[in-house]
Amino acid sequence: MTRIIGVISGKGGVGKTTVVANLGTILASEFKKDVIIVDCNITTSHLALYLGMYYCPVTLNQVLKNEAKIEDAMYEYHISGLRVIPASLSLGDLKGTDIAKLKHSLKSLFGKTDIVLLDSAPGLGREAMATLQAADEVIFINTPFVPSTMDIMKCHQVVNDMGIKPLGVVLNMVGKERYELGRKEVEQIAEIPVISLIPMDKNVLRSLALKVPVYLFSPNSPASIEMKKLAAKLIGKEYRPPNLLSGFLRLFGIKPRE
Question: Whole-prediction pTM value?
Fold first, then answer.
């Protein structure tokens, strides 16, 4: 059964696209899932840029214009088999693009893949609502501050009204400042469980500059470890971070005990 998971946020700049790119890569590479990630933010698309994909002759825009099949807009990104459906980077391609057709366009993927991650536009505008209508489950991406958390509360209310299953909040870019909201405070305001806390990590910024997911750039960095835990949680598995002993044993071809 194919899972369609919308990844949404109340505002921009919270790291939603970064989380989508990494989750997709981790689920495909680490957990051997067949995964497709889709850029549903057609007005300000970024997913392809985050992955260093500058030339994509067919995009979601052409699919939504009925000019191409969705399979034609699909590109294999990584040796793991992760596939990406980008939106166009050209402003001219917005003309005639009907995001309301997103749900119908995704129907052909049912039964052909394990997980589809939808990278939504921020907020609750037309593109975000189309993403929600196409999704069966939703992850909320948030930062530990009041404005973004208030926006998540509103998004959660809309998701509930639409009957979509909320999977929880991912609290991203978590630091150690006293003025940041904690897990319990976010849960009280948004009225939804926090399922992951991804720390502020300079490796994420470095990986963005290199146009690769931080999971590939620095697989054992703090942010990568937390996103591996999140990916495992989404599929009902447990991720065990590597330790020095297991790494040492593998150097000598010895498989450590589970």
Answer: 0.92
